[in-house]
Amino acid sequence: MRDHVVYELRLELTRLLYADFDQDLTAVFAQPFLLSTTVEGRRRRHVPDFLVLREKDVPLVVDVKPRHLLTRPKVNFALGWAREVVLSRGWDFQAWSEPPEAELENLRFLAGYRRAWLFDEDLLAEIRSADLYGATLGDALRAFPRHPDWRVRAAVLRLLWCQHFVTDLTDSLSERHVLRQGTAAVVGARRRDLPCPVEEPEEESALDDGQIEQICRATRPGSRGGGHVTGAAVRVGVGTRLKYDGEVVVVEEMFGSAAGSEVLVRDGPSRRFRLSLREVLASGRAQVTAPDPRPVRTPDATHRTR
User: Which end of the chain has fewer CB atoms surrounding its CB within 10 Å, N or C?
Assistant: First the structure.
């Protein structure tokens, strides 16, 4: 299975994790139905990724796509007409892409406490009855000395998962997080409106074949970073900065063979997605920029509450 297919499957599983955390959700159906209509004189067909049923709102149709694909004309067109069909029926539509990494790591961590039958109901009731709104997570973990620390910790995190307590999930969980009452607000990566498509340039390639081959040969897993441009070649490695569709991204990992290299890039402190170098460089949608003098750092996903 190709790397990009695995990546999209992982992204779909990530969307299901967010659905599991949604207290308003009642059911999720994968690939629920076939949409079929005539657009621009041609019969079009599309199968959405998920149908989400919600207790307090209309059904939601979700299409999961890596963010960098949303501007591709074919993908953008297919999702565009599918969106219009869904909205015309009074339902809601969502295009869903990579979520903020810190928030995703928090949900993955809390999901370990989602199985209700593993927890002591008497202890959960005792914690619920305590006035802990406004206290820090650390205070809550130390507020029940009669019980073993590990049992209290698990119960408090269970109540965070089921949203008896809510807290800021945009930063990695720590004992300084303040517990509040209400509904947890997660950013996710949902959007109802689609970005404008980016048309491919008319010319076949912004680089000649020799340059593209040299780029691909330079992007093997384990290749050294600090990409640069010379008169004879363009080299890309971990740490290389690319200007992609007007945004500066930084290469963090390499995948694939020399003939079809892909890279994991970062366009901010938390957003990552994969690109095919041959495709984006040949189309002119990405350019190598000056090396970033700062070292590439991967955010620490370790939670201090573990």
Answer: N
What pLDDT does residue 285 have?
60
> Does residue 26 surpass a pLDDT of 90?
yes
Other CB atoms within 10 Å distance of the CB of residue 5: 9
Query: Is pLDDT of 204 > 50?
Result: no
DSSP notation for 93-159: EEEE-PPPHHHHHHHHHHGGG--GGGS-HHHHHHHHHS--TT-BHHHHHTS-TTS-HHHHHHHHHHH
pTM of the complete model: 0.67
Under 8 Å CB-to-CB from 22, ≥6 apart: which residues? 52, 54
Strand partners, 265: 251, 273
Residues in the chain: 306
210 alpha carbon, distance to own chain's centre: 35
Annotate 23-52 with b (16+ C-beta within 10 A) or e (fewer).
eebeebeeebeebeeeeeeeeeeeebbbbb
Question: What is the distance between the alpha carbons of residues 266 and 285, in angstroms, rounded to a whole number?
Answer: 16
The pair of structure tokens assigned to 198 is 């980016």
Q: pLDDT per residue over 240-254, tens digit each?
A: 777 766 567 777 777
Distance CA 62, CA 178 (A): 32
Residues with Cβ within 8 Å of 104's Cβ and at least 6 positions away in sequence, in order, are 14, 17
Tokens of 49: 């990724």
Contacts for 218 with CB less than 8 Å, ≥ 6 apart: 233, 235, 236, 237
Q: How far is CA 229 from CA 18, 45, 161, 216, 265, in A?
A: 41, 44, 48, 14, 18
Question: Amino acid identity, residue 186?
Answer: V
